[in-house]
Amino acid sequence: MYVYITASKTRVIYVGVTNNLLNRIYQHKEGITPGFTQKYKCNRLVYYECHDSPDKAISREKQIKGMSRTKKIYLIEKTNPLWFDLTEWEEWEEWLRLDND
């Protein structure tokens, strides 16, 4: 299970949880699901965490959602200071698979 943060080019932030990060990010990028991420174009993966159970992932998602914007930005910038779209890193899918092993 994954907790992830997507962002728009203007740094509007969305926090979500999924069991299939590849598919979910594809949905965000294509604007398939109407709602917040489609409206604000939060289609750039800027942060994610892997968890070994749905309960832990959902708990962490709620924790992050409850953080101030400043703390969310700190969380992103700890590992991704320039807010790169992690999906543009050519080996990210392989890295994701290794994270799951």
UniProtKB/TrEMBL annotation:
<protein>
    <recommendedName>
        <fullName>GIY-YIG domain-containing protein</fullName>
    </recommendedName>
</protein>
<dbReference type="InterPro" id="IPR000305">
    <property type="entry name" value="GIY-YIG_endonuc"/>
</dbReference>
<dbReference type="InterPro" id="IPR050190">
    <property type="entry name" value="UPF0213_domain"/>
</dbReference>
<dbReference type="Pfam" id="PF01541">
    <property type="entry name" value="GIY-YIG"/>
</dbReference>
<dbReference type="InterPro" id="IPR035901">
    <property type="entry name" value="GIY-YIG_endonuc_sf"/>
</dbReference>
<comment type="similarity">
    <text>Belongs to the UPF0213 family.</text>
</comment>
<feature type="domain" description="GIY-YIG">
    <location>
        <begin position="1"/>
        <end position="74"/>
    </location>
</feature>
